[in-house]
Specification:
alpha/beta; single chain; 270 residues
Amino acid sequence: MTQIITVTNQKGGVGKTTTAAALVCGLHQRGAKVLGIDLDPQGNLGFNLGLDIGAGSTVYDVLKGACSIEEAIASTEYGDVLPSDIMLSAAEVEFTVPRREFMLSDQLTAVRSRYDFIIIDTPPALNVLTVNAYVASDGLIVPMEAEVLSLVGITQLQETIETVRSTFNPHLKVLGILINKFNGRLTLSKDILELAQEVAEQLGSQVFQAKVHRGVGVAMAPAHGQSVLTYQPDSRPAQDFQAIIDVVAGDRFALPKPKRGLKYISKFFN
């Protein structure tokens, strides 16, 4: 059964694209069939995964009906990608058709059965693109930095999640809050972790046990068209992401020797 997971937070700079790229790459490394979808007009997910942005059709063309989703999907060494570009920034104005919240979900019907996982990267905004991702998804992963403004973004996200649940997708789950750029030696990081756990409880979710620590490889990897998992696979951030992917992948796509003893949260997909 295909699992569709959206990486989301309305605040920018919290590691959404880095997380989405790591999920696509890490799941692909484990033998899963993966499609990454870039719903951010900046187009960074495709760039992170080595695509020549602007060389082909995009998710904008698909949603406009200018081409089929099959024609727009590009293959990379890390899995398939449905790329984006700046044209998608006009979505809020251009996409005014009835049932516009279901545009992505309807398009995915044609390819969903081909993949084990579909990972959606979203813009730092609560707009029609974000709502389309939520409507199409089984679960959400919410990255945040260990700082106060990032936590505020999550609390504001809660209302949108509840609206989508009550109106369009009652099965939507929050799989977990993922803390990026974590430093356990700082009092602020520890305080934010406690607050994040309280917010996660309100969302009926959890904070992922693994925290992604700071590392220069995370910032350098996109310049090489890679995820940190392939650019610096032995780095602390890469190992942190692998521990989170352990949770998402489950037993079917587990590594031969799991690096950390996290349990698969299968209840979120039931």
